[in-house]
Specification:
CATH class of chain A: Mainly Alpha
Number of helices of chain A: 11
Number of strands of chain A: 0
Shape of chain B: globular
CATH topology of chain A: MetI-like fold
Order of helices and strands of chain B: EEEHEEHEHHHEHEHEEH
Shape of chain A: globular
Number of strands of chain B: 10
Radius of gyration of chain B: 18 Å
Number of helices of chain B: 8
Helix content of chain B: 25-40%
Oligomer: heterodimer
Distance between the termini of chain B: 19 Å
Strand order of the largest sheet of chain B: 6-7-8-3-9-10
CATH superfamily of the largest domain in chain B: P-loop containing nucleotide triphosphate hydrolases
CATH architecture of the largest domain in chain B: 3-Layer(aba) Sandwich
CATH topology of the largest domain in chain B: Rossmann fold
Number of domains of chain A: 1
Structural class of chain A: mainly alpha
């Protein structure tokens, strides 16, 4: 028990002291997670909308694939992207492996199915009259879809937050594609894994606490936004 | 004789579970006021969907202002900017009443200053003057209908299609709707109303289009006689 309380005290002290390794891991984590979510949203939201409102062959297969990809282990995605970015891979000449860019690519792939599925669910739960109403008022297809997105905007925000939650807390992609290089590609999760294995439990705990605070903050923002919308 | 606004020829349509229609010939003149009557499941809403260019019939030709409709995406959007359908159970978008009424105008690229004036005028017509900043989702059922009508009127359509506009509304709203329809019709707007109220056509002096099992038929005698009697009284009063 004293081990835990002592570690906790040391973790708090590390956070308050502004330790450069802690701050670097937090900054890198947030940076790659935000960029991944931006790219994944740019692909996942339109993909979710297209699957929800579109009529095309193999629509059921696409939905099944999106659902299955939600549960794809992060190390498998890391492995596949590693194969593409490694020296022998098709994009090996770009020298992306073990850079923050490589983590962004892997985490984008990881977040796309999450964001697309949440978008799909948000639109399927929307009122069926939205599109016919917009259409009969003379809106173009794009205007109709933008109005639909506006009506389900809090569902879309939830999709983006869920995508962020998926990438900020993952280890496999960041470890395999980033290489856990100090002050360069070391994220909170990879730092926790490394420092704990080295026996520096307090350091891992400090980052774990920050990770929890980040997750709580993101969810609180979403909850406050939804409540103010309902009020 | 006024020009035909709509000409339907050998039109057949059915969409999933909704009742289909099979219409050999139907002409609706420009500026005409019609009431679409028929039992439940007779295809009234399906026909309104076709007239609103929301649903393409499986077979047949629909001409609008003498031009056959090709149902391309671009043409359908352009025609929907001339025809507006008010659904039986209208949906108001989230946000203010003004935002709802402005929707069709924004879609048409109308300038902001003009939009503001049109919103005011449209809400005034439906007796909701001063409702601009109200939250649309907090309105009563009758107010929702009125805002939806104001939103349709704001588009200044050539044709107004109304699906059961008087169903489940209070008497005051029903009277307002009827007098508004009469005045819009007098102003030359083509209006098609679907209704279960058999006396509505008589009160408005409208032509009855009777649908049964998706096909055009002759209205049951009391309904037709009531309408003819009302029209002859109106002609007598005008002469």
């Amino acid at each position: 028990m004293s081990f835990l309380s002592e570690s906790f005290r040391m973790a708090i002290a590390l956070i308050l002291s502004g330790d450069s390794d802690v701050l670097s891991a937090v900054a890198i984590s947030l940076s790659v997670a935000l960029w991944s979510v931006v790219f994944a949203s740019a692909i996942g939201v339109p993909l979710g909308v297209a699957v929800a409102v579109g009529n095309f062959p193999l629509k059921g297969v696409v939905r099944l694939a999106l659902n299955s990809l939600m549960a794809m282990p992060t190390v498998v995605i890391g492995l596949l992207v590693y194969g593409i970015l490694s020296r022998q891979g098709p994009l090996g000449s770009r020298g992306l492996l073990f850079t923050p860019g490589a983590i962004v690519i892997g985490q984008t792939i990881l977040a796309i199915p999450v964001i697309a599925n949440y978008t799909l669910t948000a639109i399927q739960g929307a009122d069926e009259r939205i599109l016919p109403t917009a259409r009969t008022l003379g809106a173009s297809r794009l205007q109709c879809l933008l109005q639909l997105a506006h009506e389900v905007r809090f569902g879309l925000v939830a999709a983006v937050i869920a995508g962020f939650g998926r990438v900020v807390s993952e280890v496999g992609v960041a470890m395999m594609l980033g290489g856990n290089i100090r002050m360069y590609t070391r994220t909170m999760t990879t730092a926790i894994a490394l420092e704990t294995s080295k026996g520096d439990f307090a350091f891992g705990l400090a980052l774990g606490l920050i990770l929890i605070v980040v997750s709580l903050a993101v969810n609180s923002v979403l909850t406050v936004a939804q409540e103010s919308y309902r009020a | 004789m006024s020009m035909a606004k709509y000409q339907l020829s050998s039109v057949q349509a059915s969409y999933g579970k909704t009742p289909g229609v099979a219409i050999d010939q139907l002409t609706i003149a420009s500026g005409e006021l019609c009431v679409l009557v028929g039992p439940n499941g007779s295809g009234k809403s399906t026909l309104l969907g076709i007239l609103a260019f929301l649903d393409q019939p499986g077979q047949g030709t629909v001409s609008f202002d003498g031009v056959p409709v090709n149902w391309t995406q671009k043409e359908s959007v352009s025609l929907r900017q001339r025809v507006t359908l008010l659904h039986q159970n209208p949906y108001l978008f989230s946000g203010s009443v003004a935002r709802n009424v402005a929707f069709g105008l924004t879609a048409r690229g109308t300038r902001k200053k003009e939009t503001k004036n049109v919103i005011h005028e449209s809400l005034e017509k439906v007796g909701l003057d001063g409702f601009e900043s109200r939250t649309a989702r907090r309105l009563s059922g009758g107010e929702i209908r009125r805002v939806a009508l104001a939103r349709a009127l704001a588009c200044q359509p050539e044709v107004l299609l109304l699906d059961e506009p008087m169903a489940n509304v209070d008497r005051a709203s029903a009277e307002l709707f009827e007098s508004l329809i009469a005045s819009l019709s007098a102003g030359g707007m083509t209006i098609v109303i679907s209704s279960h109220d058999e006396r509505l056509a008589a009160r408005l002096g409208a032509r009855i289009i009777y649908l049964e099992d998706g096909k055009l038929g002759r209205a049951p005698e009391p309904m037709a006689s009531a309408c003819e009697l009302h029209q002859s009284e109106e002609n007598h009063a005008n002469s």
